[in-house]
Amino acid sequence: MANSEYEYVKREFEFDRRLPASNWIVVRIDGCHFHRFSKIHAFEKPNDENALRLMNACATSMLEKFPDIVFAYGVSDEYSFVFREETEFYQRRESKILSICVSYFTSVYGMKWKDFFPNKDLREPPYFDGRVVCYPNMKTIHDYLAWRQVDCHINNHYNTCFWMLVKSGKTEKEAQQTLKGTFSEDKNELLSQQFQVNYEDEPAMFRKGSSVYRDKVKTDDYGNPIKRIRLAITVSNLDIIGPEFWGKHQYILQEASSV
Amino acid sequence: MANSEYEYVKREFEFDRRLPASNWIVVRIDGCHFHRFSKIHAFEKPNDENALRLMNACATSMLEKFPDIVFAYGVSDEYSFVFREETEFYQRRESKILSICVSYFTSVYGMKWKDFFPNKDLREPPYFDGRVVCYPNMKTIHDYLAWRQVDCHINNHYNTCFWMLVKSGKTEKEAQQTLKGTFSEDKNELLSQQFQVNYEDEPAMFRKGSSVYRDKVKTDDYGNPIKRIRLAITVSNLDIIGPEFWGKHQYILQEASSV
Amino acid sequence: MANSEYEYVKREFEFDRRLPASNWIVVRIDGCHFHRFSKIHAFEKPNDENALRLMNACATSMLEKFPDIVFAYGVSDEYSFVFREETEFYQRRESKILSICVSYFTSVYGMKWKDFFPNKDLREPPYFDGRVVCYPNMKTIHDYLAWRQVDCHINNHYNTCFWMLVKSGKTEKEAQQTLKGTFSEDKNELLSQQFQVNYEDEPAMFRKGSSVYRDKVKTDDYGNPIKRIRLAITVSNLDIIGPEFWGKHQYILQEASSV
Amino acid sequence: MANSEYEYVKREFEFDRRLPASNWIVVRIDGCHFHRFSKIHAFEKPNDENALRLMNACATSMLEKFPDIVFAYGVSDEYSFVFREETEFYQRRESKILSICVSYFTSVYGMKWKDFFPNKDLREPPYFDGRVVCYPNMKTIHDYLAWRQVDCHINNHYNTCFWMLVKSGKTEKEAQQTLKGTFSEDKNELLSQQFQVNYEDEPAMFRKGSSVYRDKVKTDDYGNPIKRIRLAITVSNLDIIGPEFWGKHQYILQEASSV
């Protein structure tokens, strides 16, 4: 029984879309219905440290598994993965790249759950959607990452205020009403005056999100000093909008660039 | 801090590709490096019944979760999901459909693992790739499913012979050599003469793969007769190439068709 | 001097997008800046019979040149060409199909200009844009053509009134004002009461647009009766929304369909 | 009569594909069946100077008409047009850009034919196919143009030898046989020894193809000196592979670049 009679369904309908060369490939994944998922699993509001650490652990696994990912940035239930400019990962086929990234991330999330929530069972399957975007040069990939971090700040600033108000006794509707139309300074003032909180003292992981990359270190896995520089996958919570971080870590993107 | 300065990275680089209307949408997912995965987890060869039942359980969860999936067909570490012709699932956006299907399937696979392998721990994250294909009419969607089932037969027929030979003492290379250039009849003869096995007596799940769909039944969840017909998600291992199955289950595709 | 050093610019950046099989392919072309072009060349308003006949002649040339075009429908400076469902024209590569159709049409338009405007020189190059759309079945291709003909009616009904008003002495602004918010019946009444014109008596080419197809005829090229039926490319101005035309010309789409 | 009943054919099937920002857009058009076209119109072999000048005139018209085209390169019946990196020409919609370029070029070709072939009537419509390709940075756009000029050289070198042989009495088959497997030096030797031709003395337009761009000049349209530098569309036949041309004309791409 030869299959040739039906093989036309592949030949005439399946098309592999390849992404153009010399472009940074970003895969951004995002939790599906995580509002509900975080309620069911009683996540802390506005930020659950364990949930964020789990996300970071998954991102770290991604960099371990896929060497062409040179940088990852995550906030809340979202993570962006940057492949080096000339990666030939699955011959740059869009569907392969998207499906494999989102599937591997999801799988690790499930497997590592117990490490971060030893006393909570998974009650529903966590799952993520994803998309692939190409950026043609260093400026646009920098701006992409800046875009995500600005978004992190805007959302976290708002959510910090919102949940302070709710925890202080307001209804969610009242809290929303209070924050409507407020600017950044208004929020800082509200936090300091009403709650004696300096927003800048909030944990950097909440305010800045998390960056994962291969850092040049002079220590072994236990922190002991070694002679030769080696690359170690690192999670940090630094500002990646201004020039400082990229000045200190030029090699991350430059060694991944074709220019 | 407004985000407008960087938002161009979304506006000018992210594009949502929508799939054309009046097409059946197929998402086919496929295990990544499952050759290795099945070795690590000591799957039976050529077919591990528990691994197949786990795949079927995940497919069943897919139909429970996503009502617009009207049919699924699986074989080995692969599963195809057919969405009804006019589905508006995520406005037919390709990236959303692909990533969500592959992520949800992966997540359920990890969660249900223990049900099917109570004595084996997951030692590596199982993950899948996927693709989306559109088929414009009933004939092409039928032919797509027939293509997969013919493939199931060809592969399983070969693998059954191959592993019989190996288990009988041949090396993998010798087994391969023995089967080189054989036709279907040769394989049947080898099985019956050398191993007293009638291929048709092999389990239908191995020979035919598994179909998942909503069947019209007159029993409740416990098999007791009820008065009104209801739809129950069912797994069967029938021939879906010939006209018989589709004649008996016309409603599956016809109620999902727009014509 | 081998070219291999630079050939990567083709291999890594040029992609041929093929259109899915079993879909009717429509190429719709549309005059660019024809408002200006028609003014410069002093076209009659609202319809210039010679300009429309020139468009029809170009469409006829398209069907002569490209046998896989089975039907064309034109109105004003726009023409749609329907390729048969399973056409392998340029292996269904989108860019080839689009560029060749729009280029050939443009070229014929320039060459035939003198036949329809013997006393007018072309003062600016006429040019067209175009797009390619796939329709997966008979219903959608019928509805596509109906959509264009309804559009033809709506525009021509309005324009007929508008130019009657302008020719009767109103300014363009006043004419526009008069017609604002009017329904079909209002326009018919205006035409009959103010201008003693029965819209249905206007030329069918203006009201219905033009269809080009291979008609089954029993006459030779000079209109003399012949014995065997032959196919002759024909331009007609009939209703293609209702069932009558397609009932009488079932073979046009059915012989071009794969089902 | 509202059109809403049918408008779904646009909404659900027509998609505008936009090209990603920060990419140079190249439209390359290519004569269709120009082998036949050049025979019918008795073009000189291997190069017809008038036919090439006509192509150059059309390219010049393109730069006059579309200011976002910053460079064009042509050889034989092919022309490439480079749009500046951030062009918003038709919102970067691929179908619009492709169809408009190929249509305008075709139209001008027909209209200018008489200027270059005053004694020859067009006997068949000239037409072109086209494609759109994106290049993400200066290096790749340079390499694209180098690729086309290397191709020009390889083809013209071969054709020059081929037609010398044919004109000297060989059949086309014999000429082909003679050239099979020859390297560049072999061809130069054949030309100089057998035909006393130094390939480098052949007209630059044949050997190098034609580049069209806005040059900085200090003369008016009649060649008289003027005080201020102005940009004038210029056709030249220079080497664009090496650094010299681009060194002298840095502004062409740099002013068109976003970086």
UniProtKB/TrEMBL annotation, chains A, B, C, D:
Binding site for GTP: D30, G31, C32, H33, F34, H35, S76, D77
InterPro entries membership: Thg1_C_dom, tRNAHis_GuaTrfase_cat, tRNAHis_GuaTrfase_Thg1, tRNAHis_GuaTrfase_Thg1_sf
Name of the top EC class for this enzyme: transferase
Protein name: tRNA(His) guanylyltransferase
Domain tRNAHis guanylyltransferase catalytic residue range list: 6-136
Keyword annotations: GTP-binding, Magnesium, Metal-binding, Nucleotide-binding, Nucleotidyltransferase, Nucleus, Transferase, tRNA processing
Domain Thg1 C-terminal: 140-220
